[in-house]
Every structure is written in C-alpha cells, then in structure tokens.
Amino acid sequence: FGPLIDKESISGKKIADVGAGTGRFVKMFHELGAKHILALEPSSAIEVLKENTRHFGNVEYLQTTADRLPADNFDLVFCIGVLQFIPEPVRALKAMGRALSPNGRLFLWVYGQENNRAYLSLVRFLRLITVRLPHPVLAALSSLLLIPANLYSFLCRYISLPLAEYMRNYFTQLNQYSRKLVIYDQLNPRMARYYQKEELQELLEESGFDNIQMYHRLGYSWSVLASYRGN
Would you say the pTM of this structure is higher than 0.85? Predict the structure, then answer.
C-alpha cells in the first residue's frame, strides 16, 4: 500500500475487494483482521477463490463486474491491479464510490506510464500474438518466460536495469507460481491501460472522488487513496 494505508487500520473494517482473482489479497485482509470481506470476481477464478478462502468464515462472494458492486457502506474498497483492464473505468469507479460509507475510502493500484515506456513497447508487441493463444499454450509460454525473468530479477540486484526496483522489492518476493501468474497476466489481456498521474487524477475527479492522495510505487505504478463526494 505504500504510505497511504497503515495495515493495522484494516482490522475490524468492512472491506470490498474488486477483482479478487484467486484470493491473494482476500487472504491478506483476513489475516489483518478485517471484519467482513466482499470478494467480487467476474471470471471463473471465483471458484478457485472460494476453495482458497471458504474456511475463513468472514468472506462473501459475488460473481459480477465492478460496475455492479452493491452500495453496502464499506469502510474500504480495494481495486488492486484491476482498473487498467476495465473498458469503462468511470462506471466502475462510480459504483465503487457509491459502495463506500460516508467516511469510507477507495484504494487503487494501477500500472503507470512513467518509467515504463521501453517495457510497454515490448509487451504490446508480444500481446499481438499472445492474446490469440489458448490458455494451455499461454500458460506453457509463461513458464518458459519465467526462466529469463528470474535471471533478469537476479541481475537487478546488482545492476541498475529498467524496472530494477520493482524486481527487487516485489517480483523477487513472490514464489515461482506467483511469478508465473504475473507473466501470464501481462501477456493475457486484450486491453490494458497504463495511466499517467494527471490522467488518473482527472479520471478520479470525473468519477466523483476528492481528497485524492497518490503515491508513485516502486517507480512504475500508482497507488491512490480517495474519498467519494458523489456527482
């Protein structure tokens, strides 16, 4: 979360996780003492999510899209690594805003354009091919690409390469399976947006948010904490 949210503040809170995937952050929120967690996931990954978290006892599941998040007085709505894949972000953000309690806050994490241009040129070229691949082939390719990715992350410990801070402080902290998922996610989406700071600020204001705090996380992404004023 960077400096925007103290992890201890999650204890006792009612939380929504928009785009919960297979439950990585749901698990973290549970361990941090969240009172109730709504895990929203539109894809079939929700079945894996249920299997991974059904024993927690404080998780509610909803298989729908972000723009259909119910207004339910959440203390915190999290949308981590998801907004950049949503075709109509204003509709989704307004739904997240309406879902908050009067003093609730939205936390976003999105890809940033800043410091990513060389990487974006490469991944956009690869996606011309990879978005057409069936899941088994793309999964196998992700496993294959994990080898050079691991080598690159090792070199980043000693050499100031592009995305070195991300590799040192995030990618290398993941297990091998999670690293493969990161690669798969980068190659899989047909639509992914990388936001500039000013563009993200304008999007949030258009969607009805204020008190917007932004943090340039690891030099390649943006974390945001904001309140909803409505519009």
Answer: no
